[in-house]
Amino acid sequence: xxxxxxxxxxxxxxxxxxxxxxxxxxxxxxxxxxxxxxxxxxxxxxxxxxxxxxxxxxxxxxxxxxxxxxxxxxxxxxxxxxxxxxxxxxxxxxxxxxxxxxxxxxxxxxxxxxxxxxxxxxxxxxxxxxxxxxxxxxxxxxxxxxxxxxxxxxxx
Amino acid sequence: xxxxxxxxxxxxxxxxxxxxxxxxxxxxxxxxxxxxxxxxxxxxxxxxxxxxxxxxxxxxxxxxxxxxxxxxxxxxxxxxxxxxxxxxxxxxxxxxxxxxxxxxxxxxxxxxxxxxxxxxxxxxxxxxxxxxxxxxxxxxxxxxxxxxxxxxxxxxxxxxxxxxxxxxxxxxxxxxxxxxxxxxxxxxxxxxxxxxxxxxxxxxxxxxxxxxxxxxxxxxxxxxxxxxxxxxxxxxxxxxxxxxxxxxxxxxxxxxxxxxxxx
Lengths: 156, 263
Known about the structure:
A: elongated; B: 263 residues; mainly alpha
């Protein structure tokens, strides 16, 4: 086979291979977290339920960041969650964070509800108002307890 | 008593042989790297090897990728419809291909299609004393024969694995969306929402690159190291395919446990 046809085929192969890579990168994958600067804030929760590292942080349903890490505060016995927020979005300092579930069986995520303060959150800040995850077992337990407490009263 | 001694002696010989081969392959790798610069100065040699191991593997990679993707589409649909979440078909097909099946199956196919050919070629060159002849003419056989084949494989493998994954996703789409009727928008948007470029795509590419290095090194080494007889060449080819497959699967476990640990 002559040199030029060989080069042509190899060129086609490399071009098609890179086209596949671009297809995987653009059409299949998303670039969350890799684009632009981020700033990091933390939030302490009484109970994070099944929240995982890299879970999305959403405000008004839009993904604005990711959970960076999850730790445990030894003195206050609370879970400390580090949130990596997209630098394009800023929030007031009195923003509240709550752990929510998408759908009944969906993944858990952190929801941010913006407050009304003028000053904005910056790296190192801690969110003061937090709401823990709803633990289904506790909810059912409470429900059964209330039912049991009701039953004798209605029997009379 | 004598039988026991004989057994122990055999185990010892096998261990020493194994360690010796491991050391030899590591030194061989260093030599290949050292003479790579020389072979890159004559780029057409490497381009020719990319043609033989990359372009000629295209057909088997594309067809296998398509069929693996179509099977994933069928099986994924069957499992996901039990949970009423057929919209997640795209996620399942894309993640299983990008993370595992793409690099691993492409690596296994590459080892049996291209690795065996490289071993046979180098082994036959050694049997017919072409390598010694080159040495006599002051042409370094490592730089002239071995390094181009090694780099040809290393360059081809990630591209082939990416093509395999892309074809597989297309196959899954064909079965899921075109044949069964999963919603087209849900298929792509759910896939895009949960496939992360750095975490899933890039890790898959790193995997395929590592597999390409391993398979190419094994192929050129077995060829270079074979007994210079017809039987020796055939044995070397068998060893290439078998040990490539084992190394790919073992490396895949190691890489997976580093990359996707409990996240």
